[in-house]
Amino acid sequence: MAAAAAISAPPGPPRLALRLHPSTPSSCSPAASPPPMRALPVLRRCLRRRLTTAVHAVKQDAAVWTPAPVSAVGAATSDGSIFHVAVDLSDAADLAGSYTSPGQYLQIRVPSGGGGEELKPAFMAVASPPGAGARFEFLVKSVPGTTAERLCGLRDGDVVELGAVMGKGFPLERITPADAAQTVLIFAAGTGISTIRSLVEFGFGADERSDVRLYYGARSLKTMAYQDKFENWESAGLKIIPVLSQPDDSWKGERGYAQHAFLRAKNIVNPSSTGAVLCGQRQMQEEVTSALVADGVSQDKILTNF
Known about the structure:
Shape: globular
Helix content: 25-40%
Largest sheet: 6 strands, antiparallel
Structural class: alpha/beta
């Protein structure tokens, strides 16, 4: 605003002046003499744009982050590498209500409180299903030096900050009603199972379909989350196929990666009535998609949450 005042002042030595270099007419840089009159509109636009951007950034940061207390933290796997974190949204009904589709996600950060390093917010998929009440649940892998590690070390009552719910989630309308995809093949690896949990517990008519398979990949049973939910999921119409890449000698099930277990079996009866839901590493998604499309499955019925 000081620059604008200097521009409109009567002739005389300016207190603050700006000059636009002839070769860079849109730049704003300090100078010793006032700009030519023809450059004033450009200068005003530049100043206005900078001011608007700064104000917008402040407003956006203040509006997006919602503080909420942690209501539960605990190990989700027997080796303690993955944690279950729940956040109470009793005082954030709008945020809870904006979560409408399995597969949506948000950013989460842990305030340092002035006593530690500020870390980048982490992107987390919501593991609990939409409409499950005033809380969000997350599946968090502890990675040293990250926000995820801090989340895993929190206790009940500690406060985190949540960003806005993002993404459209899985486009389930492409495999709805159940007759549109009597076979649904689901693939997840590691913490990618969090979005699949939200899908299964939200409900997509698995018990109305003839063949719904979940290929769930992990290093070992010790790193496989949600084993306590398998019985309920199977009663909802899923066939769960655990696939371990580093099992011990007692393991009698599928070995390797989730996509490889599927490729060994395939067993697609009717490609035109087959859909898939993918959540995991890019390579897995690419291999599964290529195999399904080659077998005649419509690309439109292969769902991801991105």
